[in-house]
Amino acid sequence: MDDKGTKSGGADLTEAFEQCALAMFNYMSPLEHVRPLESRTYRAEGHDLSSLLFAFLDELLFVFSTELFLARSIHITSFDREAFVIEAEGRGETFDRSVHEVGTEVKAITFSAMSIAEREGDAEVFVIVDI
Hints:
Elements: E1 3-10, H1 13-28, E2 38-45, H2 49-67, E3 69-80, E4 85-94, E5 108-109, E6 115-119, E7 122-130
Antiparallel strand pairs: 1-7, 2-4, 3-4, 5-7, 6-7
Helix pairs in contact: 1-2
């Protein structure tokens, strides 16, 4: 397996997690071609921030694998840092080869070299995915 790393940031961890999710989807198919026609809800649980990020991305990948749903936007509606639970909504559409460019198949999320950094007004996450 090959690996592809994504470094994403934002004003806080919520935004950094959202940007990381979009980066993963953008590997699969360039998001500029994805229309926000439908929505999906996601829920992920972990036991710390790293496992929560892993579970969140894994849930997004699972929904793509089973429904071919590509999210052009992700909005985390609830980020419980004590119970380590995320709820989110994605807007996008079902992947269609006649409309969307085939990108890189993401096979799995990894914990390898995963990092989460947070400072006042700034957060950054780094995740490697297997392609």
